[in-house]
Amino acid sequence: MANQEDIFKKVIAHAKEYGYVVQSSEIYDGLSAVYDYTQNGAELKKNIREYWWKAMVQMHENIVGIDAAIFMHPTTWKASGHVDAFNDPLIDNKDSKKRYRADVLIEDHVAKIEAKIDKEVNKAAKRFGEAFDKEQFLSTNTRVVEYRKKASDILQRMGRSLEAEDLDDVKKLIEELGIVCPVSGSKNWTDVKQFNLMFGTKLGASAETATDLYLRPETAQGIFVNFLNVQKSGRLKIPFGIAQIGKAFRNEIVARQFIFRMREFEQMEMQFFIRPGSQKEWYEKWKETRMKWHLSLGMGEENYRFHDHEKLAHYADAAADIEFKFPFGFKELEGIHSRTDFDLRSHEEYSGKKLQYFDPELNESYVPYVVETSIGLDRMFLAVFSHALQEEELENGSTRTVLRIPAVLAPTKAAVLPLVKKDGLPEIAHKIIADLKWDFNVIYDEKDAVGRRYRRQDAAGTPFCITVDHQTLEDNTVTIRHRDSMEQLRVSIDSLRNHIAAEVDMSAWLKKIDS
Questions:
Q1: Is position 376 annotated in a ligand binding site?
Q2: Does residue 251 have a known ligand-binding role?
Q3: Is 446 annotated as a binding residue?
Q4: Domain spanning 402-514 has what CATH number?
Q5: For the segment 85-135, what is each residue's pLDDT rounded down to a tens digit?
Q6: Ligand-binding site membership of 235 (annotated)
Q7: How far are the Cα atoms of 18, 26, 185, 254 from residue 98, in angstroms, in the given order?
Q8: 146 among the known binding-site residues?
Q9: Does residue 67 have a known ligand-binding role?
Q10: Total Cβ atoms within 10 A of residue 29
């Protein structure tokens, strides 16, 4: 466990050192669970956004995008259920005075059981070598079967208790499992209470006339209230989707694990409107489609898994998470939810306006059902960044730190390095940049020995280094070095654009989704 913590600390330190993420208002000692994306972070975030948008909107003829306001009429949140049901179960430790989410304490306990399973699997894999059958081992090893049953029973009981609002049983479960406060080590817990996560604010020129508003806790409702505007102006036929990327705000009780759980974050959501009764088929289709998008980035199939929800939200008839193996274990990265017709029907009721679709094939009007895909942009950023950060031992015994961000998402695609700061080499390097910058984000780097510059660019995640040397003066060729393999090729300056495009072109990466 300590090893995981050390890895995660390195991720946070590296993000700061290489211009990706820093704590917000750091010069004033920061603001808890609020972060700023600095120069490389802003670029990586932009590239993830674009990769999602192209796959979701540009590649689908029946999906369009919108950008709805953060402020919405307050009745929106009454209709959506957020005013009454957007709560987290809260528990305090009387000795440390620290506040925790009761469900997270229980999930962390289950994660320790899962870590024991991993340990048994790794031990057996070493013992049996190539003959090791992981699936058979998981289903037949007595100790592992016991661990898995225990973990499943705990999560099922928690799900049932939260569903039934039985907060006494949630506390009882924490006590039965012997869960201690991570700070004080004591089991001196308060009762479990519900805590609403929405941030309140005011709209108006004076305190007397101001309207009470909320900062939106999700982007989905902006899609639902605009359902008819978009459908009619776009003359869209069911099935069709509406996508949106935007900020959301939640007053998290325990905001932690760096950018994994923040109070201000960004969501990439798509609501897919369908005929009632077809939701099961579309739910499965979107689970498969979204997993293919993740796998197209080449971060390893073994690092993803589906987790079906034991406890369903008030609006859902099916829900699953795509979980990713973060440095602190498998956690939710994306949710796929079958939301039924809850949202549109509820907004119909509260607004008094019809939100129906006339289906010319059936010759009838109905409130569509919805399948949602929702991914946290910040979590996706953390998945990419934490997976990419690697310490690598080289043949000569030395080590290098390399940030293997998928080339399509890398903030800077190439660094251009003159071998020395004279003999006209910097001028050629600047001319190469002037040519390439129309297509790629490229930088100039002339400080330190060239080997040290390579290491610096490896650690920053730059896929290519282009070195201008004295041979360039003779034959107009340069050395292009690949970050991942460290392979160096001699290529003509004229072919650089094609060489880089072959590795970083978004359409080539997105085509993997259909293959």
A1: yes
A2: yes
A3: no
A4: 3.40.50.800
A5: 777 898 999 999 888 989 989 999 998 999 899 889 888 888 888 888 888
A6: no
A7: 33, 23, 11, 9
A8: no
A9: no
A10: 8
